[in-house]
Design a protein that fits this description.
- By secondary structure, the chain is α/β, with parallel strands linked by helices.
- It contains 9 helices and 7 strands; from the N terminus they run ββαααββαβαααααββ.
- The chain starts with 6 loop residues before the first strand and ends with a strand.
- The relative contact order is 0.16.
Length: 246
């Protein structure tokens, strides 16, 4: 195992690693508010409840950067690039540019670990439930939840967090922050083990490997605690985990 690695956790949101090897990078509205002293002071007056707690809990070890403008590191300088539930929020052309940028910053032989919602798993569950509905009509009222798992976040018009606010605050957020797509809350594409491998191969990556939340070709991966919750369980069930080598 390397004595020291440089690992990027891209689009981390509030999901960061405190491990010294990991550099957390994100561009969320919460981070931009926290970075500005004036706006930071105003946050408690316009944000409340769980969202305010998340804002207060943001750790200081996050690099605030818009990844649409590239990855702010030199070429061939990073051992591992990791991102979870980020890629599906990018338009396909943006996703293609993004993974090429990942390839640029990785060292030769570096690893790209990708976590996305698994379209194959969602579709298999949907088809299995179609069969159950044919056998038991009482299952039918539950069926839309299986459809929702595939398409809901692609057709969502209002950001989920905004939709749960009191009426006045909800109106203000929709005016100022925009709809679900403008807030980056929607899925622009979905991936399975086939099209994700094609996307990465086109960007120059090799050796596609399917992993799970606890397995990796990265030595000591579990110590970074990026794919497990506080109890050691899978943080994002229903995900596809794949690794590729530059």
């Amino acid at each position: 195992m390397l004595a020291w690695m440089k690992i990027l956790n891209l689009g981390c949101g509030t999901r960061t690693s405190a491990h010294p090897d990991v550099i957390n990078v994100d561009w969320s509205i919460y981070l931009r508010l926290k970075k500005n002293a004036v706006l930071r002071a105003l946050v408690p007056f316009v944000v409340s409840g769980e969202r305010l707690e998340r804002f207060k809990a943001l750790p200081p070890n996050i690099v605030v950067h818009n990844l649409a403008r590239g990855i702010p590191f030199e070429s061939d300088s990073i051992d591992l690039v990791y991102h979870s539930h980020l890629l599906e929020h990018l338009d396909q052309d943006v996703a293609a540019r993004f993974v090429r940028e990942v390839a640029r910053v990785l060292k030769p032989g570096g690893i790209h670990r990708v976590v996305v919602p698994d379209l194959e798993v969602a579709c298999r569950k949907y088809l299995a439930h179609v069969d159950r509905c044919a056998e038991d009509p009482h299952e039918a009222p539950l069926h839309d939840s299986y459809v929702e798992a595939i398409i809901e976040q692609s057709v969502r018009r209002e950001a989920r967090g905004t939709s749960q606010q009191p009426p006045a605050r909800r109106f203000v957020e929709n005016v100022i922050l925009g709809d679900a797509r403008q807030q980056g809350d929607t899925h622009q594409w979905m991936y399975d083990r086939v099209n994700l491998a094609v996307l990465m191969t086109n960007a120059g990556f090799e050796e596609p490997k399917i992993r799970d939340y606890s397995s990796s070709g990265i030595p000591g991966w579990s110590q970074y605690r990026l794919d497990i919750d506080g109890d050691g369980n899978e943080y994002k069930p229903g995900s596809l985990y794949m690794e590729f080598r530059k």
